[in-house]
Structure prediction request, 172 residues.
Amino acid sequence: MIQIRIGGWAGQGVVLAGTILSQTFSTVLKKNVVMTRSYTAAVRSGVTTSDIIVDDDYIYDLMITEPNVMIIMYQKTFDRYIDLIKKSDHVIIDSTMVKNIPEELKNIYKINASEIAEKISNPRISNMVLLGAYAKITGHIPIEALEKSVRMYVSKRFLDEDIKAIYAGYSL
Prediction:
């Protein structure tokens, strides 16, 4: 079983990233997947999460208790979930947005996702950079499977830059 939490601030594309990742596992890789989301009522503010549980077998739990992977896009989200971060095998952070990281934490992967995204076109695609980094760091999904999901679920208007972003994250 794989448990993943993507966390950030509303408006950063946390829900889209969770949707694409869960669809990569379910539609492309044919795994059983449960995805839940949590976000505040206010638009573009407040902590937002996408939780994804993946297994070859049936999934009976809807709650993440010990995430294998945390993808964190904002400092307040990092601070809120520090206890889960300490339990995680891999913690992938947007180091452009998350600066205060205790030195004793292990398995932290600092990705300048917002800076990389801005060089491609727009910092809003930092979520895609982080998904590409996730594919490379964990080995849970092939980059080609992730690209296939992006092609299925992203608007054609943003497709080229999102594809560039996942490959930029994967190449780090």
